[in-house]
Structure formats: structure tokens, C-alpha cells
Amino acid sequence: MELGEPQELLVPSNTTESEGSEVLAAVFEPLVTYDENKNAVEAAAESITSDDQKVWTIKLKSGYTWHNGEPLVAQNYVDAWNYAANQENAQSAGYFFGRVEGFADLNPGEGKSVTAKGMEGLEVVDDTTFKVTLAAPFSQFKTMLGYTAFYPLPKAAFGPDGKITQQFGEQPIGQGLFKLDKPYKKGTDQSIDMTVYDKYPGKKPSNWTKLQFKLYTDSDVAFNDLMADNLDIHDSLGPAAIAQAKSSLGERYQDQPDAGVGYIGVPLKYNDELNKVDVRKAISMAIDRKTIAETVFSGTRSPADDFINPAIAGYRQGACKACTYNPAEAKKLYESAGGPKTLEIGYNADGPHKEWIEAVANNLRANLGIDAVAKPFEKFASILDELDAKKYKGLFRMGWAIDYPSAENYLSPIFSTGAIATGSNYGGYSNKKFDDLIAQGDQAPSVEEGLKFYQQADDILNEELPYIPVYFYRNNSGYSKMVKNVHINLLNQVEWADVEKV
């Protein structure tokens, strides 16, 4: 299986990017998965219930054990979630626990010490039951629980100091389908090797037991390995490979709907030249999305016209007015707003992005009359690290593969003020009205009522363009002659138990 290098060691609460998430999804069993209608379905959970959408009771299924043989218990979730939420642990997914009562006690702010032992909203009832009390009602809490951040942790994850150990990060002990064979040494290892866990109570592959994630820094090299049957599954084919894959792989090439969005990211908080809305609108109107989707991506993308993907309820066609290609208006607006004479667009070379980022740079040069340059980074992790450190001031390639199927997931984790410190708000965007609308959507009495507020928050993004949506993904994947029944789910992860060796 092809994979880029994970940004961090393999700790669920510190993993907010797709490469590490794909590995962890093989090692851990989530509380819920999602059916073809995008509804949450219990997995490790026996039931998740609430009478008021504020107090939730989670009961665990019997039969799950950790890879070290210990039983999975409710305390494992409470320990993991409290660790993730505590600001002293600086976990990148800590933001996702912000709705739990007592989160503020674990996040008193910079320069202040944490005095609470945990969030008061987490209560262990017995070994198979725990309660979660939220600060306010949230109708979609159950839907969130399939995300990586909500995985449990065994006692063995923690050292004497209460911190997750490096040993665990290199060789996490999960309660899912696969068990790591050996520690993963980030930066030197070229693969992550696993074996089916024989005591896993769910469905297992029928005729194979070994899984290897092969780490690549070049998507085209991975495609060449696929064509030579030296790689069984490549789930992120690049633009240059798609035409050949269609003709060469036949039924082993897959093109299917995907809930992701591809953006040009904007470092608003760190580059004053990009702070004017009209500058961002001009950049957006200068991008020929239709040609990029049809030519660069061989028709396997569609032009983005909203921050919410069409696969998820809440999308509205044409919501982003400045996403319409209008080069003449773009140039006038850019010049009147005093846009910078040079722009750099960073992208990660370990993914299939070179062609489309260079196409965007060409558009900006031709249509705005400026010097626009595409800058490659060897790995996606390198861009994320520089953004986390607030070092990179150029535009940047960014994508969002959903964590869970909700319109809210395109908004809050990426653009809310709270997500700057402990989420995925790499641009540093902050808007109080946006935050308030998200809160109103969260607390609405139903998913349908909440969607109205989320769409109003989405309107603000479409007007202010903290990121610039360029295309909606489709999943383009291929597999070798050595396997069959390869299915990729809504979270862009392979359904491993269905795969068969030929």
C-alpha cells in the first residue's frame, strides 16, 4: 500500500493529517464507522445514546482486547481524551474535545498552569460504560466519534510521568485489525509493517495476514511500482498517471466520488500583504478551475464553488461567487487592492500536486501580471511543520479529507478561532461572527436546524476566502493483479477486511 511519510509519530491525538490517520485506522477500531448513506454506525461501541444531545452514554461492545492482551475498558477512552485535551501535552487534535464540559480547565491559556486532573464531563460508569457531558448540546457528537482523535489508549501508552512514550508512538498498541510488527523509525524506515491481530473480534481478511505501508516521496515512482506489480494498492494517483492508469489497469482503476476539497491556503495571520479580502478574491477569480479540473486532472476533479463538498448535505452550487473565472475583473481588483508583485505557492512533492500548483502559478502570472512561483517541499509534513511554526508566509497547497460526514467538519476544525492553537487552522483566520454561527449550529435541536447556521458560517468563508477553494476531489486509485475487492471508504481509507489476494 502506497503512503507518504506521516507528519508525526503514530499517536492518535497528535495525528491530524491523512498519512498518519491511514496507518492508525488499521491499528485502532473507532467507536463508529459510516455506512453508504454517511450515517454513523456503531463499531467498538455497542450503543451511543442521549436524551438531550448534551449528556451522552457510550457502551462498549464485548470482545475487544488490546494487542498486548489486556481488555478494552471505558477508562481507556477517558484517559486518552483527557490527555488529548490537556494543553500541556500540545496534541494537534486537542481542539476536537473543546465541546466537552471541563475542556477549559485543561486549557487555561498560555502562561497558565493546568490544575485540573481531567475534564469533569467525562465519567466512567463501569468497565464497559462511560458518560460524556458536553458544555452545550451538540446534535452531531455521535457522528464525530469515528475520527482518529477519539481512539482510546491502553495503560501501556503512558510513561511514569503520565506522558505518551516515544516507544508507543513508534509502535502503538491498538485494539483494531492490525498489530505493528516492529517499531516505526520515522525519517529512516521506508515501510510500516503489520500483521492481522488474531484476537480481533470483527471481520478479518480471508486469505492474507500481512500488511505493509510503503513510504514514497514521489507519487509517480509509486505508480511505476504499481504497474510492475511491486505495489498492490495506490490510492492517490497523480494527474500524470491517471490517463495511463485508465487504459492500462482497466477494471483495476477506480474513479469514485470523494468528500475532499483542494485549496490554496492563505497565511492571513503571518502575511499582511494577503490580508485584504479583495486581494484574495482577485487571486481566486484569476484561477481557471475548469481547465485545471478537465486538463490537468483528466476530468477527475470538478471546479470548487463552495467550502462544503457536494457529497455532504449543506453544499450549495455557486455559493462562492469569487470562484468564477474572470481574469479581466481579477486584474483590475488586484491592482486596485495593491496586491503583492510576487507570490509563492508551496506544495508537497510527495503527493500529486506539482502539475496543478504550477497551473495555478501560470494563471496568476498571466492574469494578474505578477511573478508567481511554485515552490516544492519534499514532504507534506514539511509544509505543516513550517505552518505550525508560523515560518512560511507564502500561499500553500492544502487539502481537506473529512474526519466525519458533516458540513460542520469543513468549517470549525479549519477556520474557527479555537482551531488556531489546537486544530488545523494553519492560516490563522479568526472571525467572531463565524465562531458564533458555528456555536449556534452545534446547539441547534436537530441536524437539519444546525445546517442552516453552518451554511451562514459558510457564507462568511465564501465572502472572505481565508482559503481559496480550487477543486472537489474524486478518489483515483489503482491496484495490482495480485489483489481484488479493493474498496476505499468515505474517509479515503481501504476497507482491509474485504481485500482478497489473487
Automatic annotation (TrEMBL):
<dbReference type="InterPro" id="IPR030678">
    <property type="entry name" value="Peptide/Ni-bd"/>
</dbReference>
<feature type="domain" description="Solute-binding protein family 5">
    <location>
        <begin position="41"/>
        <end position="419"/>
    </location>
</feature>
<dbReference type="InterPro" id="IPR000914">
    <property type="entry name" value="SBP_5_dom"/>
</dbReference>
<dbReference type="InterPro" id="IPR039424">
    <property type="entry name" value="SBP_5"/>
</dbReference>
<protein>
    <submittedName>
        <fullName>ABC transporter substrate-binding protein</fullName>
    </submittedName>
</protein>
<dbReference type="Pfam" id="PF00496">
    <property type="entry name" value="SBP_bac_5"/>
</dbReference>
